[in-house]
Design goal:
Oligomer: homodimer
Largest interface: A-B, 56 and 55 residues
CATH superfamily of the largest domain in chain A: Tetracycline Repressor, domain 2
CATH topology of the largest domain in chain A: Tetracycline Repressor, domain 2
Organism (chains A, B): Sphingomonas jinjuensis
Shape of chain A: elongated
Number of strands of chain A: 0
Radius of gyration of chain A: 19 Å
Pfam families (chains A, B): TetR_N (PF00440)
Number of helices of chain A: 9
Distance between the termini of chain A: 50 Å
GO molecular function, one term (chains A, B): transcription cis-regulatory region binding
InterPro entries (chains A, B): DNA-bd_HTH_TetR-type_CS (IPR023772), Homeodomain-like_sf (IPR009057), HTH-type_TetR-like_transc_reg (IPR050109), HTH_TetR (IPR001647), Tet_transcr_reg_TetR-rel_C_sf (IPR036271)
Protein name (chains A, B): AcrR family transcriptional regulator
CATH class of the largest domain in chain A: Mainly Alpha
Amino acid sequence: MSSTAVDATPAPADKTPRTERGRRTRRALLDAAAAEFGERGFHDASVSGITRRAGVALGSFYTYFNSKDALFRALVSDMSGRVRDEVAPAVRGAPPGVPAERAGLAAFLAFVREHKEIYRIIDESEFVDPDSFRRHYATTAVRIEARLRSAAALGEIRADAGEVHAWAIMGMNVFLGLRYGVWAEDGDVEVVADAAADLLCRGLAAR
Amino acid sequence: MSSTAVDATPAPADKTPRTERGRRTRRALLDAAAAEFGERGFHDASVSGITRRAGVALGSFYTYFNSKDALFRALVSDMSGRVRDEVAPAVRGAPPGVPAERAGLAAFLAFVREHKEIYRIIDESEFVDPDSFRRHYATTAVRIEARLRSAAALGEIRADAGEVHAWAIMGMNVFLGLRYGVWAEDGDVEVVADAAADLLCRGLAAR
């Protein structure tokens, strides 16, 4: 682990805000951190820049987080959870199998366009906090695999759908998000999702 | 661009070695750089560490590269080219369409297992040298898209295969490489490539 890896000391449990006002301040710090880390990167970002963006007194910061490292770790976990929570209702609202994966991708692309900084933050976690990076992709893949296995059990998709398919779909989604969400918004989200779903549905076979 | 971005000054053309001995030394420096950057990351890597690994005198380094930044940039370009050159013969040796993509993925997975550092180096280029990062994926996608369009013109795959399919395939390959090449080698390369090819061939459809 390089010297840039974050301090792995867990935040004491008592830093979890007990009041609604405390939860709002913590949320404001996380949102400000997303902007600051997204624009400047981990090393150039500063706690004072983050509290300034959040409109929070510098001294209050340590009520919520032990360090810039601890805040970064919390932010990766928060962003991972926000993607999950953004995608989940779209997936649940569609029939299992390819329609659910299509809906998940469309929701993900729309989320990425509004939160482009998520790529830089998750990607930088590979260097700043490798455990968070690994946890993000490992848990996402497990979630996709569970969906595929449920759909397979229902006979909606091939019976052998499993881990390789889950990682293939996750990679597809991440790179379509990079191309059509972060780099440029030249493709309509629904058109990109349709093309991907059609690929998942019947592959590359000639008609 | 953050303060960690590399100096974008191109190396003077006259740093290209003219002799076979010079080319061997440059190659040794690139290989040593892959090991040093892969293990320590860009910021903790040092020119002296790289020359020591390469068995090259520190003073000779500047005959070949202007700086650590310039060497990193050259290394990303070199690794991008090595992946391309490793995959190309496998792709050319298979029938166009899905068999070619399958062969390319199998060759890529085998390469990644031997050169796990490529992930860390390409991923770190997003922060150290963003132009190299973008160029790597943009040129890879263009290459895949060109293959798909040729195969479509031959009637081997669907006629509408294009950019979305190319990015989907690239993402699939990168994440299967991360899972089955870098993180763990628990899957047989040919079995993983077969599963991915079967997905590309006929999608997730129930049999």
